[in-house]
Amino acid sequence: MSWEKKSVLITGISGFVGSYLAEELLKRGANVYGIIRRRADGSKPKNLIERGICEDVTLLEGDLQDIASLANALDTAKPDAVFHLAAQSFVARSFQAPIETEQYNCVGTANLLEAIRVKNYDPVVVFAGSSEEYGLVVFSKMQYEQLKKKYHTIFPEPVSIPEVPIAETNPLRPMSPYAVSKIYGDFLMRDYYHSFGIKTVVSRAFNHEGAGRGPVFVTSEITRQVMRLRFGEADRLVIGDVSSFRDWSHVKDIVNGYLLLAEKGSHGDVYNQGSMRMNSVLSYILLSLEEAGWKVYAVETLNGEKRIENPTDISNAPFFGVSFEKTRVDEMLLSGELSYSLADRGLIVYTDKGEITIDFDEKRFRPSDVPVLMADTSKIKKLGFDVKYTVKDIIRDQLNYYLSAENRA
Questions:
Q1: Distance (Å, rounded) from C-alpha 353 to C-alpha 140?
Q2: Banded model confidence at residue 250, pLDDT cuts 50, 70, 90
Q3: Paired residues of 124 in beta bridges
Q4: Which residue, 215, 225, 221, 332, is CA-closest to 280?
């Protein structure tokens, strides 16, 4: 599909991903419309200002809770494609406000699909699902036993171990109200294809980051704190669980994946998006420190019991049958040689410029968490998907964003 002169409607256009998607669509010659909530002060969305595209997109007032406003937006845009990105997308907030998350993500998605059906429009609809839908992923027999002890029940039980890399056929074991809400939307999209012929495609994108990512997300919190440390505005880092692994992609790779799915994805189908690599939160911290100018020599728990020399040394040794770039500390965490918990209280990072303290904050640990996420992207690669950016590229872009004192505040 050529995007030249195509009409595209984006829900969540003012969000982090929506603004990048709009920018790319404009570069490809599309006419871009976006739904935003009414702003009492009439101000323009910050993400669109940062992308420099405020005057190039057509913003339509609307709300996912108001089906009439969605119908009006469809009448104006008459879209060839709809990208449904709008959501309450912060996992931690979904624990604090589960009903809000359900209303916006579940009912809002139903309203959008129903408006398209009733108004008899025929766009391709790409839904922003989430890797969080997979939830509790089993990657070793030892971890399985630990999970059984902690949660008592794992459903569905794993057919084989490891369940990594995660294919679209992996069991869905959501571990947050946010993840449950995304499963609802995921299934609803496919039902509207089978029941009503709406041309839906579901993207289950794994974590995607870059400059302008919201400060409540862990990669932004890490890079913001690192730059505050760099400018003498803080004397330590404060973080939650450092042992979780995520498949981190650059937002621009994910945006290109969305466009590819609209062009070539099979309607009614589901596709993972990711980088087919994973790194721990601790690695993201240590690599961010190094990109910001520190040379990391060692990391040690505050009680001195666990010390790792050269923790950022890079290896491409295969794990789960996949070769990908990871740090020494990643390898040790994945193999079970190393673990961290709240009981360790924190870490000391030894660098060429002195020691850096990382405090573990109990409030930042979730009631339930997803330990490991790594995408099997074989399916979308058959459509031509390719990863262009490394984890260090992502970190570099985020650190550059926080060079601005206004963004660090």
A1: 38
A2: very high
A3: 81, 199
A4: 332
In 3D space, the residue among 124, 211, 139 whose CA is nearest the CA of residue 170 turns out to be 139
Alpha helices in 197-336 (DSSP H): 218-230, 251-264, 281-291, 328-335
362 has a pLDDT exceeding 90: no
Q: What letter does residue 394 receive in the DSSP assignment? A: H
Q: How far apart are CA 171 and CA 167, in angstroms?
A: 9
Residue 154's SS3 state is coil
Q: What average pLDDT score do residues 163-190 get?
A: 97
Residue 98 pLDDT grade (very low, low, confident, very high; cuts 50, 70, 90): very high
What lies within 8 Å, CB to CB, of 239 at 6+ separation is 218, 221, 222, 225, 281, 285, 358, 359, 360, 361, 364
Does the predicted TM-score (pTM) go above 0.85? yes
Judged on CB neighbours under 10 Å (0-12, 13-18, 19+), 270 is buried
CA distances from 132 to 171, 276, 353, 363, 372 (A): 12, 15, 38, 21, 10
pLDDT, residue 194, reads 98
Give the chain's mean pLDDT. Answer: 95
The alpha carbon dihedral of 26, 182, 211, 58 has a sign of: positive
SS (H, E, C) 336-355: CCCCCCHHHCEEEEEECCEE
Strand partners, 246: 279
Beta bridge partners of 307: 300
C-alpha to C-alpha distance for 177 and 166, rounded to whole angstroms: 21
Radius of gyration of the chain (CA): 21
Sign of the alpha-carbon torsion through 9, 14, 15, 17? positive
CA–CA gap between residue 150 and residue 153 (Å, rounded): 9
DSSP 39-62: -TT-PPPHHHHHHT-TTTSEEEE-
Give the pLDDT score at 1. Answer: 74
Place of tokens 């569905």: 156
Q: Residue 323 pLDDT > 90, yes or no?
A: yes
Alpha carbon distance 182, 180 (integer Å): 5
Phi (first) and psi of residue 310, to 5 degrees: 50, 55
Q: Exposed, middle or buried by CB within 10 Å (0-12, 13-18, 19+), for 68?
A: exposed
Q: Is the pLDDT of residue 369 over 90?
A: no
